[in-house]
Amino acid sequence: MTDIVPLRRNVRFQSLWIGSAVSELGSELTRLAMPLLVLALTGSPGLAGVVAGARTVAFLLVQMPAGVWVDRWDRRRTLISAQGLQAVVSALLAALVLTDQVQIWHFVTLAVLDALCAAFIEPVLGTAIRGIVPTSQLHSAYAQEESRTHAAGLVGPPLGGLLYSLGRAVPFVVDTITFLAATIFYALAKVPRRPANQSQTSAREDGQERHPNRGGMRREAVEAITWLWRRRGLREVTAAVMVLNLLGGAFLIPLIVLVGERGGSALTTGTVLAGLGIGGLAGALLSGRIGKLLPPGRLLLVVLTVFGAALAATALPWGAWWPMVPLVFITLSTPSLNVVLNVVIARMVPEEMLGRMGAVLSMGSMALKPFGPVLGGALAAALGGATALVILGGLIGMTAAIASLSRELRSFTGEVTPAGRDAVGPGAHPGQVPE
């Protein structure tokens, strides 16, 4: 029996992780720089929300076809090509800003193109971990992935604010460099081209695949949706996550407006947003312990409650820096939930369906998310940053109260039984966990 290589010495996984970490850092730089630039050019929080919302809409619309194609295509080539195209899109935006020719429709168009690339990158990354990490190391791998996300969230916003203060185009130039570096690391990772156990598939010498017995795209998508729909408990969790993503995705622009109303600079805003990264990184490091305290359903209720209370607390009148403190608590518990759900999905979903299932689960959780930035921008424009944040926090608290009434959600565990099915709790029907 071959010894399992420790995760830290798994060169393919670590190359994949470094590439995704560098790419995530670049995205976090522009997460703050983009709305700051739109606000500087237009003076409209609503238009800043429209740009962010357009990206989310495009990502959502193409995600299901992208998931199907990822299961069909050469995954390694898809990942490298999509990341390379994302670098080109970032370079175009940087050039437009440098030449003072950027207009609002440029932001919208390039945000949509960036989303199309990301829609292919994310499902490949999800399937790649399953292909290059042993099952016994999945929890550690996803915990490391979670730490990557939050470390980028910690470093990216303040660095983005600092770079923006040096010049409006600087964050976008650096973003382009990070995407190019990520492309190189993805090539070194040698992501599996197709599932190792994929049947009814023949490979050609050029790396492409034939699927002689597969149905059309609609049939493959319906197959994944049906798999999801038949899992009771899973539907309730997905519905709660949908609402959380809508309301949680709405707070960024009101928060930027709030810090600005209190006299904070771009650097101050970036540092305040780093609170999300601090809490998320700490939560990722503690995910192993926190994930054992509560089953996924009840952990979700805790996350909703903490999120709502902390978001409302950002509006307390204690200066421009104060919101950083409650932001830490917003992301302290979410990494544990993400890690637990990712591991269950990786273990239970057939590998040849991972791309489609990842798209279905993501679409289910993100169906309302495109309206978040628009809602947040509209509330901030009409009522100001502080009032908008209180309203959003209160709505998330109401969501937690309503979700707690669901027995299926409260008892949802996602535990794998010896028969290979997952449980949702005593007396509940089998179910599987969404991401």
UniProtKB/TrEMBL annotation:
GO CC term, one of those recorded: plasma membrane
Q: Which InterPro entries match?
A: MFS, MFS_dom, MFS_trans_sf
Disordered: region residues: 196-217
Which Gene3D superfamilies does this one have?
Answer: MFS general substrate transporter like domains
What GO molecular functions are on record for this protein? transmembrane transporter activity
The entry's localization annotation reads:
Cell membrane
Q: Which UniProt keywords apply?
A: Cell membrane, Membrane, Transmembrane, Transmembrane helix
Q: Where is the composition biased (Basic and acidic residues)?
A: 203-217
Looking up PROSITE patterns in the UniProt record yields: MFS (PS50850)
**Domain Major facilitator superfamily (MFS) profile, first and last residues per copy:** 12-411
Q: What is this protein called?
A: MFS transporter
